[in-house]
Design a protein that fits this description.
Elements (H helix, E strand, L loop, with lengths): L2 H12 L4 H17 L1 H13 L8 H4 L3 H16 L7 E6 L5 E8 L2 E6 L4 H12 L3 E5 L5 H17 L7 E3 L4 H8 L7 E5 L2 H10 L12 E5 L5 H13 L8 E7 L6 H6 L7 E4 L1 H7 L6 E3 L13 E7 L2 H11 L4 E5 L3 H10 L4 E4 L18 E3 L7 E3 L5 E8 L7
Parallel strand pairs: 3-4, 3-6, 4-5, 7-8, 7-12, 8-11, 9-10, 9-11, 12-13
Antiparallel strand pairs: 1-2, 2-16, 14-15
Helix pairs in contact: 2-5, 2-7, 3-7, 5-6, 6-7
Length: about 400
Amino acid sequence: MNWKQTSLKASRLLNLVSDDTINNVLNSLADAAINQTDRILIENKKDLDAMEKSNPMYDRLLLSSERIKGIASDIRNVANLPSPLGKIISTNTRPNGMQISKVTVPFGVIGIIYEARPNVSFDVFSLCFKSGNACVLKGGTDAYNSNKVIVEIIQQVLEDNRLDKNIVTLLPAGREATAELMNAVGYVDMIIPRGGKGLIDYVRENSKIPVIETGAGICHTYFDEYGDLEKGKSIIFNAKTRRVSVCNALDCLVIHKSRLTDLPVLCGKLAEKNVIIYADESSYNQLKDSYPYLEHATEESFGTEFLDYKMSIRTVNSIDEAIEQISLHSSKHSECIISENNEKIEIFNKMVDAACIYTNVSTAFTDGAQFGLGAEIGISTQKMHARGPMALEELCSYKWIIKGEGQIRS
């Protein structure tokens, strides 16, 4: 049998596996990840050696002992979460005595197409397994050695627990495998692309399987005329520099014209990280004598997910203009307002269309673990089925269970 048939068969058998067994496997996997850290790092180094350190993707590709400990902790967190399966969403009894229940169930087989982030292999398996789904992984060529050893470890743990190793499948590198996955109608129930805009657009435009868009984050922070300077300085620095290669990083600071004189304070600390700022004319004039890494913005500076130590600044005359600017360029991921004015905050919260809207909080918190969901499978930027951090509940569908005593329809 090929991977399509073995994955489908494994997904059906997974419906019979108890939650206790699932939790035991996940805890065993966390132990295996720690115990086999050296083996994982050897393979990860092969991938790292083939990538320039200056590449913004290098940080995403990098594994370390500390990161593997964090991954193991996330796996244990997933094991400790309640099962999302078998929950009765609603129930009713019809006049004829027929009992109808709406119950949560797995999707079945979930395909994940992702770039150079080997931690995703652990995260995706953990969440799919806990929610009763088999998963088919199509990682990027840049991380193939890392992904291969991780999946080997997962499959060994499954076999040690007398479960089908095909609950997780790693496809070979190359676009041929990607095309096969996107055309596996009848075998794969859903595809989730995790990566930049180019990858997401490619999958959405070419897949015959339903797609949930995740990942692309063009994130704005609006510093309102009523914004607190100390909060703003801290939030902007954290949102931009905590990890530049992730989707919740700040890309564009939108600032009210009345607060332009505060820009040297708001942005000053960014120079410690050599952040390049692409400033419009008004903000450029405010920063030109104090900020060392300043360039004139072009239209391409706005609506760009930098994934690097770069950001843009746009000056606006009002909150309405700020919302218009964000709406024009947002990927509907995470947007923030810094303000002490409740009326402005309420307008922003109601008018900005994004999965996550922040008030006086760094967008760096858009993360399944930070939301109390355990490890996440991605950040959905669409509105159908799931929105924002996707974890266990978002990996479930439902079915109708109907019980009767021989009723027939006239």
